[in-house]
């Protein structure tokens, strides 16, 4: 970093996964940078659910980390299991056939309004990547690993709300009205409520509320013995309000460890999960009790996931998505661009969003490394390539989510506004 100290830094807004991976790329290229994160520390808020990494996401991370990738790889879980993605009837405990049908009881048929069906795209979702395994890692672990070596260049408790172009660079503007030092560029990576993205695109970048909701939870690894190794989706279609399900990744190395916790993510079609007053900052007992209530009629072998859950770790979340028509075109700005959820918010289906964000960081980091920092035309080159794969990813994510959550969004849907708690 010292060799490049004569250059103004690259300013990065947000300290999420995409921002920190980009920071690691700049660190490796000896390009000065500063990360501005609105949270007070890495552990200020919940770190969210476990992510499943695709080959594309892993390739991007390996490109950036280089020799450091081995440490990242060792921190991931490699889940096998002959079924790959196992589909289970949460109430009866029976397997759901991959063609989308299963036998259900008369009572379930009446409650669900007919036969028990699984959407085709849900049944064909592919999760396996390297070595035929499903590779998973928690957001918190990823952030900590990506941050290594970058700590001196992170400014905590700095909430970027806009930017100001100068004659020879750009400055970030913070919520308290103060401004950063002048940087060569500003990269907006502060998530779905990015003020940088809104300003840069003149409002063209929008995030939509799908209406679907979820609850994150943690339980002791021993509570998952009724499932066994694998990536599982437990589906409940008996609720008159709509379908709910959980996804969990049961890792063989932890299943018998009473000190280890595993996570699960509950999701539901619109109308099933509703935080009080639509307040997504509510965590703990309220979210835990709702999860327990929604699973009260589930098969006994799955009940330990909720009976033994870590109540304090439970949290609501809102499922959002960019418009499925793809990443829009805006007037390019040489000094400013955006990465990750700030430019392409996606549903959790297939873990596509996080993997696409990793591709953003690798691509932009590669271009900056080749140029040795800022170069005219660099943001245009990045955005041109990013729009192609990111638009494909948003369409794929929306396609999976539309069948899973029974939602429909387009340019006529009201976009999300404001800033809320992030998971």
TrEMBL record:
UniProt entry tagged with the keyword Metal-binding: no
MF term (GO), any: monooxygenase activity
Protein origin, superkingdom: Eukaryota
Pfam name, any one: FAD_binding_3
Protein known as: FAD-binding domain-containing protein
Every FAD-binding domain range: 154-396
Keyword line: FAD, Flavoprotein, Monooxygenase, Oxidoreductase
Cofactor names: FAD
UniProt keyword Flavoprotein, yes or no: yes
InterPro entries with a match to the protein in the record: FAD-bd (IPR002938), FAD/NAD-bd_sf (IPR036188)
